[in-house]
Write a structure and sequence with these properties.
This protein has 438 residues and is an alpha/beta fold. It has three domains: 4-135 and 303-331, 3-Layer(aba) Sandwich (Rossmann fold), CATH 3.40.50.720; 140-299, Dihydrodipicolinate Reductase, domain 2 (2-Layer Sandwich), CATH 3.30.360.10; 347-433, Alpha-Beta Plaits (2-Layer Sandwich). The chain is built from 14 helices and 17 strands. Strands 7, 8, 9, 10, 11, 12, 13, 14, 15, 16 and 17 form an eleven-stranded mixed β-sheet that branches. Strands 3-2-1-4-5-6 form a six-stranded parallel β-sheet, sandwiched between helices. α5 (105-122) links the parallel β5 and β6. The longest helix has 20 residues, at 303-322. It is elongated. The protein starts with a strand and ends in a 5-residue tail after the last strand.
């Protein structure tokens, strides 16, 4: 059978991993496809830096058009990341009749609908397993073996940088800023970690997951996104006293025709398996109506795991082409006509338990004032922790309350009222709790 020839755009760390895997496991790949997958062209602006992998003469180019115009290249891998020129390159490759493999979750989260429509018109596939969870094969499972299920929820710890920071804060009582500095030094965090620590990277991945699980087009800008920068070692300590661990959690739920899509620090019960996902590891938990809860765990980033997912997509496409098929599967796993635009549930209507941490003066009547304001907004207290009395009444003390279930809008309104009281010394911290992760 004929070999499958491919082009690669973006020869960074992940691109080098793809080249390495295609070379070192060429015999394994051939035995599973029945043909070789040959890397004919690599396009990158920098073709002089040594990436630590051998590339045959004539493969490297600085002009991506060499890939688009080559009739022998049937698959294009996009690994440059970001929005542009990635979007233009992907659309150009599709217009040239080439299948796409990408790890670009940001591109898919914002421009997936346009890219998928273009691929449908040209009869080519878009594969993106590596965009969520690195080497964890969750997207393939959703579209494949789990495809018969109606999914009710998806929860995920999907950013290794944030999980590393929160793990260190939990295990060592360390402060956020100190652990972030260590994460940067060790290479777990980018020099500019904004996308990671502000939850944006996780929100990109959630947008992809929600689309696949619920068969919907989702407006990325409608995903509520909150990072971990305001979490302190004090919050971690009190969460543990209540029986929880704090994680940056991506949450997707489908209830009554509305989609919840939110990313924020979340208190997870210590007995839940997600609470034990530590360090740079990722985990994604799905619930299907027939299969029940299923959890995927592994390395969510890195050269080798990500390359494994990319080449896995390549092998799937190569098998399709070897069988003489064209477009075997729509990108979201639903036929195009079945993908609908479901409404996003407003954040104010979300119902959850909450941990509220007040910084208040140690004076008589403080608890009554706080409880009264909560009660006026229909919020009841489940339990409370208060630190010991201070020597000086002017020194603030933390008062930590766990609420019963309440609407987010009511919580926000109550805290606005409470934070205006002269007994409150700092803006109140609140963290959402997910007791039911089914």
């Amino acid at each position: 059978m004929n070999n499958i020839q491919i082009g690669l755009i973006g020869f960074g760390n992940i691109g080098a991993g793809v080249v390495k895997l295609l070379s070192e496991n060429a015999d394994v790949i051939r035995s599973k496809v029945g043909a070789g997958i040959i890397l004919k062209r690599i396009a990158d602006l920098d073709i002089t830096t040594d990436r630590g992998v051998a590339v045959p003469d004539g493969v490297l180019t600085t002009d991506a058009n060499d890939i688009f115009t080559d009739p022998d290249i049937s698959v294009v891998i996009e690994l440059i990341g970001g929005y542009e020129p990635a979007k233009s390159f992907v659309l150009r490759a599709i217009e040239s009749g080439k299948h796409i493999v990408t790890a670009n979750k940001a591109l898919l989260a914002l421009h997936g609908e346009e890219i998928y429509a273009a691929a449908a018109r040209k009869g080519v596939e878009v594969q993106f397993e590596a965009s969520v969870g690195g080497g964890i094969p969750v997207l393939t499972a959703i579209k494949g073996n789990l495809a018969a299920n109606r999914f009710g929820s998806v929860f995920g710890i999907m950013n290794g940088t944030c999980n590393y920071i929160l793990t260190r804060m939990t295990q060592e009582g360390a402060d956020f800023s100190a652990v972030l500095a260590d994460a940067t030094r060790l290479g777990y965090a980018e020099p500019d970690p904004t996308f990671d620590i502000e939850g944006i990277d996780t929100a990109h991945k959630l947008a992809v997951l929600v689309s696949l699980c619920f068969g919907t087009r989702i407006d990325f800008n409608g995903i509520f996104t909150e990072g971990i920068t305001r979490i302190s070692s004090l919050d971690v300590k009190f969460a543990h006293e209540f029986g929880y661990r704090i994680k940056l959690l991506a949450i997707g739920k489908l209830t009554d025709g509305q989609v919840e899509a939110r990313v924020h620090p979340t208190m997870i019960p210590l007995h839940n398996p997600l609470a034990d996902v530590n360090g740079v590891f990722n985990a994604i938990r799905l619930t299907g109506d027939f299969v029940g809860p299923v959890m995927f765990y592994g390395r969510g980033a890195g050269q080798n795991p990500t390359a494994s997912a990319i080449v896995g997509d390549l092998i799937g496409l190569a098998r399709t082409m070897q069988a003489g098929a064209g477009r075997r599967m729509a990108p979201l796993g639903f036929v195009d006509a079945s993908v609908t635009a479901l409404p996003l549930k407003p954040m104010a209507d979300i119902v959850s338990n909450y941990m509220l941490r007040f910084s208040a003066l140690d004076k008589p009547g403080v608890l009554a004032s706080i409880a009264g304001a909560l009660g006026r907004h229909g919020i009841s207290i489940e339990s409370m922790v208060q630190t010991a009395h201070q020597e000086h009444d002017t020194a603030p003390v933390p008062i930590v309350i766990k609420t019963h279930e309440a609407r987010e809008g009511a919580i926000q309104a109550a805290l606005q009222e409470i934070d205006r009281l002269d007994i409150i010394c700092e803006k109140t911290v609140f963290i959402r709790i997910e007791d039911n992760l089914e």
